[in-house]
Amino acid sequence: MPTMTREAAADALRGAGLRVTAPRVAVLECLDERPHSSADALRQPVNDQLGAVSTQAIYDVLNALTEAGLTRRIEPAGHPALFETRTGDNHHHLVCRECGAVEDVDCAAGKRPCLDAVDDRGFEIDEAEVTYWGHCPACAEQARITRENPTESRA
């Protein structure tokens, strides 16, 4: 369970060479509690802490945090940009095709095998994104129920 306190957020900002501001602290705290959130999804919880903060201001904070390495931006196809505080560990993501749920999944090999391309064509590879697509347990169960009882699901 995420546990970033205001003090931990402020320390992280200082450690990354960023100025400690209330919006940056609030975004880090809220994102730690709600991994894989879009800027729009963070607006209400940040506003609950600080009052009126625009979505553009949240985007600006997220961009600064991502550039500093405190957050990671992922962009699953068909979804808005999502952000998380889990960085630097080469984890991947599971995305539900039905409801859009996103979950972290550790790298299967435990190291960075995906950074060793068969032919890197001269690129200096420093990151790879792996996204597993499928159905979360709840959506898979609902699909199973629908398949087994097609007339009941139409009611």
Care to give the gist of this entry?
By secondary structure, the chain is an alpha+beta fold. It is built from six helices and five strands. Helix 2 crosses helix 3.
Describe this structure in words.
- By secondary structure, the protein is an alpha+beta fold.
- Strand 1 and strand 2 (82-84) form a beta hairpin.
- It contains six helices and five strands, in the order ααααβββββαα.
- The radius of gyration is 19 Å and the shape is flat.
- Strands 4-3-5 form a three-stranded mixed beta sheet, with no helix packed on it.
- Helix 2 (22-33) crosses helix 4 (55-67).
- The longest helix has 13 residues, at 55-67.
Topology at a glance:
Elements: H1 6-15, H2 22-33, H3 39-50, H4 55-67, E1 72-74, E2 82-84, E3 92-96, E4 102-105, E5 131-134, H5 137-148, H6 150-153
Parallel strand pairs: 3-5
Antiparallel strand pairs: 1-2, 3-4
Q: Which class of secondary structure composition applies to the elements?
A: alpha+beta
CATH class of the largest domain: Mainly Alpha
Biggest sheet character: 3 strands, mixed
Poorly predicted spans: none
Kindly report the spatial arrangement of strands forming the biggest sheet. 4-3-5
* Fourth CATH level, the homologous superfamily of the largest domain: Winged helix-like DNA-binding domain superfamily/Winged helix DNA-binding domain
Radius of gyration: 19 Å
Essential attributes:
alpha+beta, 2 domains, 155 residues, Dna Ligase, domain 1, 41% helix, 12% strand
